[in-house]
Amino acid sequence: MSSHLQSWNRLPKLNPESIYALNDYFVPSSDITPYPLIAHGNGRSYGDVCLNDKGTLLHTLHLDRFISFDRTNGILRCESGVTLQEVLNLIVPNGWFLPCTPGTQFATVGGAVANDVHGKNHHDQGSFGHHITAFELRRSTGETLICTPSQNTNMFKATIGGLGLTGLVSWVEIQLMPINNPWMWVESHRFENLDEFWHLNSEAEKQWPYTVSWIDCLASGNSQGRGILFAGQHAANQNYMPVYKPSGKKIPIDPPISLVNNLSLRGFNAIYYRQPVKPQGGLTHYIPYFYPLDAIEDWNRIYGHKGFYQYQCVLPPTSAKEGTSELLDAIAQSGQGSFLAVLKTFGSLESIGMLSFARPGTTLALDFPNRGQKTIELFKRLDSIVSTAGGALYPAKDARMPSGLFKSGYPQWEEFTNYIDPAFSSHFWQRVTL
Ligand SMILES: Cc1cc2nc3c(=O)[nH]c(=O)nc-3n(C[C@H](O)[C@H](O)[C@H](O)COP(=O)(O)OP(=O)(O)OC[C@H]3O[C@@H](n4cnc5c(N)ncnc54)[C@H](O)[C@@H]3O)c2cc1C
User: Fold this and answer.
1) Of all protein residues, whose CA lies closest to atom 3 belonging to ligand 1?
2) Residue 199 needs a FRET pair 20 to 30 A away by CA distance; which of 5, 152, 189, 331 works?
3) Which of 340, 314, 392, 345 is nearest to 120 (CA)?
4) How far is the CA of 397 from the centre of ligand 1 (A)?
5) Ligand 1: distance of its center to the CA of 267 in Å?
6) 49 lines ligand 1 (CB under 6 A)
7) Residue range 117-172, pLDDT digits in tens
């Protein structure tokens, strides 16, 4: 079968030779060719960690069964193609929640493991890998390994954040977190510049399990880094529960050019920044709080058929303030960027994965319409700031990082190569290591 599977930003455009839709009895083996193989979950990565050219994609969405759910202790075991949305639909009515969730509920559990995804509560709960109690790994060598924090430990550490390269994760067991109801208590606070952000954010992190800030990436001078901080926690028991109505918006077509340009961006950012904030707090359903973008189906189409890039970096605490300011200077000067600009600090909990992205420091994430060379030139400038600051880029959000920046950002990459399944590789891996 030829492929139309792509990743979320629709870049790079690659042609795997075949797509193999997995079933429960699947074992990666020499029968499945051509090599290399790589798992493809729901394609919510931006870039090429879930793609390869001329190889085979192992599509996991049919690995969609729940295996067990201990409702008393909140331990869930499910196949790796189950999406986070399907997990939440099961666990939330039973008083449980994912202890870590990215900004989309359309990622699969296998994808969440392979990128060791993080959420708004990293400073409190770490990343996805911190909550995995076990998983099964199927390798092309014929081995089936059960990996836990104390069994096959090195393979456990290599596979969490291992970009799908250690083999196929067939099921995952997660320790869930108790909640009272599906609602969140959320406060929002405007800040006028980066200095205010650092102060507000550090105070908020002391009190709130979830914090994240939107920033106006084009604001400069005294307003550089202005934005809104959203702090949240799961709501206490309520006497009155509001009714949640999901929105059904959709981007119906691919516009011929990106709808995100300097003019639309400046207008949007100015309006968004002036929105009424709620410093006293209010109730918000967990879906719009955690997954605001999921409300618009196919929102990635607003960038037109040329697609877009996301640039997500992390800078260590010692260089985060200066580095963030330099990055925002470069972005504002370029006039590129998008209304999706997010700033967040990670906590000090060390990630489990050898290649995990999340680490102590500050992460900045922005989308950029693909304007060809102009955008690539901007990224070179940003790369040099990240590199000087001792930072790293996030493979899950990458379609072009240079090899040197990957290797300096992931010093354990050579040790990691000992755990790669001999039949597995991705376009990303070939790009950054060969
Ligand atoms: C709107 C939006 C918001 C996002 N917000 C965040 C965020 O806040 N934090 C964050 O960390 N990420 C975020 N992401 C990125 C996303 O969570 C990750 O890229 C995630 O890995 C996507 O999961 P997927 O199932 O779509 O996997 P894919 O994109 O299909 O694959 C991702 C990786 O997982 C591997 N993989 C998938 N299934 C398996 C398996 N069964 N066994 C082995 N390897 C496997 C693939 O080979 C690939 O390397 C966001 C993405 C979107 C679109």
Assistant:
1) 103
2) 331
3) 345
4) 9
5) 31
6) yes
7) 999 999 999 999 999 999 999 999 999 999 999 999 999 999 999 999 999 999 99
